[in-house]
Write a structure and sequence with these properties.
There is one protein chain. The protein is mainly α. The chain folds into 2 domains: 42-110, no CATH class; 121-410, no CATH class. It has helices at 15-37, 54-66, 74-84, 99-105, 113-137, 146-154, 157-165, 169-184, 188-196, 202-214, 218-234, 236-253, 258-261, 271-278, 282-306, 310-324, 337-349, 354-366, 380-410, 414-424. Helix 1 packs parallel to helix 6, helix 8 packs antiparallel against helix 9 (188-196) and helix 9 (188-196) runs parallel beside helix 11 (218-234). It is globular.
Length: 425
């Protein structure tokens, strides 16, 4: 996306041009958000309650502060929502979150809805930019353009969706970036323990665990499972064994609620949504999703096992999980913010093809194209994610082979290399 050296320029976008494009995008997005939110009451200009999904989390906060055991009762959650925000009669949310979410959010119940939403927005924004700063430290070339990277972070479309919906995705982002730091230091077990905290969001936890297991990181996998179980067990003090049983029942019911949870597939950015939009037949779409999601998990696992660079390993893990996740809305894609930093840095450091840079460029804005998928049923973002995921092990192997060839040349072993070629022919 950015030229690090004039001699290596591969796509016709200068830092100055990119700065202008990103600045315009950020100004447009946040101007639209400002106009939509600056209304006197609790309603946005678009008609939704401000914070949208935060309304559900605010109801869970009230349940967590009084009777956390009611987290799985549809009517109980609904009544808590209406007591907290009586104007929200037209907003209905199925109970899909576990007791740990209700307990963790309980402190927000001390505040009125508007104040709680403001506090959560500030906290989410702080987590996002803290994660950005940490990820940038591991990107030496991109760090040379830190102001440009900051503009890109401000205008990152999933952040725009996240803050308007009041979702929990910034927590997941903080977890994966902290895990990346530990992986960089070789603390594989602690990396897994941190990733295990994502059990509060099973659609992300499950594919990540599958990738780590298939990648042969048994220590990380065991730590993930143990950490997730500890997280659940810690809530037993509030909900008891019966509450944990209800949570298990809730998890078993989630597949049956898949259609309800995918009411807006054009705002979802995983292989499941890709095939739902593209293939009218539900059975065929499910089959294609299963095959391609399994492929994404295997490719990510291969990269996790054989790639030496920890940043690329985490990028593969996050891309693979995003693609394979059965339920991933656009705001959840903030977990890919560090991926864009690390892969852009890789693009600038190594002789990767110009196509890689173009896909990074298109993939950055592709999540804004979701609405167009209602007209042309192709989710461009998923194609970009798939290309980037496949590129990690493929280009790594290609670069490694190039390094070996240079080593052979430097040590006078080129003759032996030619002999191997002659023998192969």
């Amino acid at each position: 996306m950015i030229e690090s050296q004039p001699a290596r320029r591969r796509i016709q976008t200068t830092p100055r041009e990119l700065r202008g494009q990103l600045t315009i995008l950020a100004l447009v997005l946040w101007s639209v958000a400002t106009v939509n939110t600056t209304t006197p009451g609790l309603r946005l200009r678009s008609g939704q309650i401000k914070g949208a999904d935060f309304l559900h989390f605010y109801a869970l906060a009230h349940i967590g502060s009084t009777d956390a055991g009611g987290f799985a009762d549809w009517e109980h959650v609904r009544q808590a929502q209406l007591r907290a925000v009586p104007e929200s009669t037209d907003h209905i949310y199925p109970p899909v979150y576990g007791p740990q979410v209700a307990v963790a959010l309980a402190p927000l119940a001390r505040f009125d809805y508007t104040t709680a939403l403001l506090l959560w927005t500030v906290l989410s924004t702080g987590l996002y930019f803290a994660a950005f700063a940490v990820a940038l430290k591991d990107a030496p070339v991109v760090r040379q353009y830190s102001s440009l990277a900051l503009i890109g972070a401000v205008g990152f479309p999933p952040l725009w969706f996240l803050l308007q919906h009041g979702q929990l995705s910034a927590v997941a982002l903080g977890i994966v970036v902290a895990a990346a730091v530990l992986l960089r230091r070789g603390r594989v077990g602690l990396t897994g323990a941190l990733l295990g905290l994502l059990i509060y969001k099973p659609p992300l936890f499950a594919p990540m665990l599958a990738i780590v297991v298939l990648g042969g990181s048994w220590t990380a996998a065991a730590a993930m499972v143990l950490s997730g179980l500890v997280e659940l067990a810690a809530t037993a003090a509030w909900v008891g064994i019966d509450g944990l049983r209800r949570y298990l029942e809730l998890l078993l019911q989630l597949p049956g609620m898949a259609a309800m949870m995918a009411a807006r597939p054009y705002q979802m950015h995983s292989l499941r949504a890709f095939w739902m939009l593209l293939v009218p037949n539900a059975t065929a779409a499910s089959f294609l999703y299963a095959i391609t999601a399994a492929t994404a998990v295997v490719v990510a696992a291969y990269a996790w096992r054989y790639t030496r660079d920890s940043r690329l390993r985490m990028s593969a893990l996050l891309l693979g999980a995003a693609l394979a996740s059965p339920h991933l809305y656009v705001y959840d894609l903030v977990i890919l913010a560090p991926v864009w930093i690390w892969l852009t840095d890789w693009f600038l450091r190594e002789p990767l093809p110009a196509t890689f840079g173009r896909v990074l460029y298109v993939g950055y804005v592709a999540t804004l194209m979701g609405a167009f998928a209602q007209i042309v049923p192709v989710q461009v973002s998923v194609i970009c994610f798939g290309y980037l995921l496949l590129s990690i092990p493929y280009r790594q192997a290609e670069l490694l082979e190039s390094d070996r060839l240079r080593t052979w040349k430097a040590t006078g072993s080129i003759a032996g290399f030619r002999q191997r070629l002659d023998g192969a022919q």
